[in-house]
Amino acid sequence: MAARDNDQGGMGSENAFGRSSGENSEGKVDQRVQGEIGKHLRAFYDDVINEPVPNRFMELLEQLERSTQKR
Amino acid sequence: MPVSDALRDDLLGSIPNLRAFAVSLAGNSERADDLVQETLMKAWAKFDSFQEGTNLRAWLFTILRNEFYSQVRKRGREVEDAEGTYAARLASQPAQNGHMDLRDFREALSQLPSDQREALILVGASGFSYEEAAEICECAVGTIKSRVSRARSRLAELLALEAGETYGADALSATVIMRSVS
C-alpha cells in the first residue's frame, strides 16, 4: 500500500498503523499511535513501580546507616 | 559522611523507580534488584559528591545505568547471550495486571535495541525531560530525540504486525480484541 501524500495524523485511514500510514511523511509515528505506545509503556513501568519495595533494600539502608554512624 | 534523614528518605522513595528502570534494562527482576542494590551502595558511598537540591533521581539513574553497562562489559561474551535471551526473559515476566496486550507490548519492547529502549523508557515512562535523559545517557539531546522517535516507529511496526491489517482503525486495541476473541 502506498503512503498517502498528505497524512493528517492517520485520521480516516483504513490502515492507520505501520510503515504505510501509521507514520507521516517524515517517518514519525502519529500522535494517536504515540499516545497508545505511551499508555502501554507507563502500564509496563507502573507494574514494577507498584510492587512493594523488597525487604532487602530496607535492610540494606539500615546497614548502610549503621556503618556510617560507626565511622 | 553522615547522610541526612531527608536524603535517606528521598533515596528510599526512589527505589520503586530505580527498580522499574532496572527491569527495563536488565530484562529480569532478579538481576534488576541486584542492580538496584549496587546502585544504592554506590550512591551511599559517594553521597558527598551529590549536591543536595539537585536532581537526585537523575543522579541515581545515571549510577544505575553506568553500573548496568559496566556489568555488561565485564561479562563480555555472556553479554551476547544476555542480549539473545533478553526477549524471552522480558516476555516471560508475568503481566501483573493480567492484560494480554501488555504482554504483547513487553515482547515488542524487548525487541528494541537497548539504546532505543532506554531512551524511550526514560522519556516516556520515567518522566524525564529529553535534556535529563541526555545527561543520564551521556549523549546529545538530539540523539535522545532520534532514539525515542526510532523506538516509537519500531514499536508501532512490531505491534502492527501482531495485529494484522484487519483492524487498521486502531491496531493496538485491535490486538486486544483479536486476542480476547480467539
TrEMBL record, chain A:
Q: Where is the composition biased (Basic and acidic residues)?
A: 25-34
Q: Which Pfam families match?
A: NepR (PF18557)
Per UniProt, residues of the Anti-sigma factor NepR domain are 34-67
Q: What superkingdom heads the lineage? A: Bacteria
Give positions of region: Disordered: 1-34
Protein name, please?
Anti-sigma factor NepR domain-containing protein
TrEMBL record, chain B:
- Domain (RNA polymerase sigma factor 70 region 4 type): give its ranges: 103-155
Checking Pfam families in the record gives:
Sigma70_r2, Sigma70_r4_2
Which residue ranges traverse the bilayer? none
Q: Where is the signal peptide?
A: none
Q: Which InterPro entries match?
A: RNA_pol_sigma-70-like, RNA_pol_sigma-70_dom, RNA_pol_sigma70_ECF_CS, RNA_pol_sigma70_r2, RNA_pol_sigma70_r4_t2, RNA_pol_sigma_r2, RNA_pol_sigma_r3/r4-like, WH-like_DNA-bd_sf
Keywords in UniProt for this one?
DNA-binding, Sigma factor, Transcription, Transcription regulation
- Which Gene3D superfamilies does the protein's record reference? 1.10.1740.10, Winged helix-like DNA-binding domain superfamily/Winged helix DNA-binding domain
Show where the RNA polymerase sigma-70 region domain sits: 16-77
Give an example GO molecular function: sigma factor activity
A biological process term (GO) from this entry = DNA-templated transcription initiation
Q: Which domain of life is it from?
A: Bacteria
Family to which the UniProt record says this protein belongs: Belongs to the sigma-70 factor family. ECF subfamily.
This one is known as RNA polymerase sigma factor
Per the UniProt entry, what species is this protein from, by scientific name?
A: Faunimonas pinastri
